[in-house]
Structures are given as structure tokens and as C-alpha cells.
Amino acid sequence: MIDLHCHLLPGIDDGAVDQATALKMARIAVADGITMTACTPHIYPGLYENTGPGIIADVRALEERLHAAGVALQLTFGADTHLVPEIFDGLRSGRIPTLNGTRYFLLEPPHHVAPPHLADNCFALITAGYVPIITHPERLTWIGEHYPLFQELARSGIWMQITSGSVTGRFGPDARYWAERMLDEGIVHLLATDAHGVKNRPPLLAEGCRAAEQWLGAEEALRLVQERPQAVIDDSAPERVCAPPGVAGDRPRRSARRGAFWKRFFSRRS
């Protein structure tokens, strides 16, 4: 499995606090079956002033530490970046790194406020040659009021990445509800850990893959953690990558757990 979203680099954002924590997280990832992790610290002007060259240097240094410790985890680089006016220049210059230097990059919307013109900006980024990957939309507090926007984005070339722990309930019932709904509708491209530590948010991907399999079947669930992440690493053109069923226009699979989904749907409104 390949994890494209992990805050593994020590001491540069709210992820791993030190090298010992980063090493423990890497060991957990390997034990979980993860073979490659993208180190994707936040880039948030005024709070986390990370840059592409600095992130890449830190990844290379962590690779050496993992190798010396005998931890067989491949690393690559990226960033969890916000939609700011400087994003276009930042991507072009490399100040904001894309995933493994490809056309794909992680775009983190504000958690509590819907940003204006999100769709227009995402489409402009596609026109500029990039593929935005929206991170953890299921965990945004405003998704309920704007859910059709995410359906439109997913079916218009913007990729959706949900968090493994959301599907298993680690982030609470609301995040689980939206994660399951997006899976059921077939508009999820990727599954990632968004790991920040060892205890509260560990790098566990297999449990989310197993949970997603109940909604999508084994083949599509594997695409979430292997086939599409590998396509990102390889910089494959998105039109050459097998799209999720709801994006490709296929009729979404009617999962065996659909009854449980609707039970939670109505319980949230009671």
C-alpha cells in the first residue's frame, strides 16, 4: 500500500514531534503493510512556513535515519497546502511541492469555513496543468451544506482523498457518515492515513481499506491504496487512470452495508 498523506517529518508542523516519534510512526506504517509514504507537512502562511526545498531535504535526511534503523519504508515528498493567492506561483516555482514532483498535489480546504470560489480555483489549477487532490473532505464541518460541490468537483477532474480513520469511525460519526456516503456514491479516488503521531492518529491504512471494501468490493478498495497512488507517483495522466465508479459514469455498486448507512443517516437527524 502507498500512503500519500502523512505528517511524518519531525518538528516542522503538528505531526511527528521529534525523530523518535517519526521512527515509531514509520515502524507502525511498515507493520501495517505500507511500502511507501509521502511526507506531506502543512504549508500555511503565517503558521507553517515550509517550502519545497526544505521539505525535500528533510525527507532525504529521514530516509537516511530509516535506512540506518533498518526500517524498510520508502519515502517521497509533497505538502498539505491551503488555497492561497500565491498557490499558482508557488507550484510553478517549486516553493509548494507537488507529490513526488508530479502534476498531483494535496489541497486542504479550511476546516470550518467554505472558501469562496473553490470550484473556480480548482478548475483554474487543472487548466494550468495540475490535478488538485482535496484532502479529507469528509471531515470538513461545512460539507453538509455544500456536498453537491464535492460531487461536482469529483466528476469534473478534481480528485477526492478521504482519511482511513474516517471510514473506521476514528474521527467520529459525522466524518464516518460522509466518508461512507462518498464511497457509496463512488466519488473517492484515494485513501490515506493523514497520520500525525503514534497514538491518536497513527499511520494505519489497512483497516480503512478493509472497511472501504465492504462498500466498494476488493478490487476498487485496492485501487484506493495501491493502483491510483502508484499512478500519482508515476505522474500518469488522469485520463489513463481507472476512475472511481461514480466518476466514470458507472452505476455505483449497491453495497451489502447500504442498510447500515441509511440507518446512520436517519439517526444523525433524529
Task: Describe the fold and architecture.
The chain has helices at 19-31, 52-68, 87-93, 118-127, 143-154, 164-168, 173-185, 206-216, 218-233, 245-248, 258-267, and strands at residues 2-6, 36-39, 42-43, 74-77, 80-81, 104-107, 131-135, 159-163, 190-192. It is built from eleven helices and nine strands. A six-stranded parallel β-sheet has the order 3-5-6-7-8-9. A three-stranded parallel β-sheet has the order 1-2-4. The chain is α/β, with parallel strands linked by helices. It has a single domain (2-267), classed as Metal-dependent hydrolases (TIM Barrel, Alpha-Beta Barrel), CATH 3.20.20.140. The longest helix is centred in the N-terminal third of the chain and has 17 residues, at 52-68. Helix 7 crosses helix 11 and helix 8 (206-216) crosses helix 9.
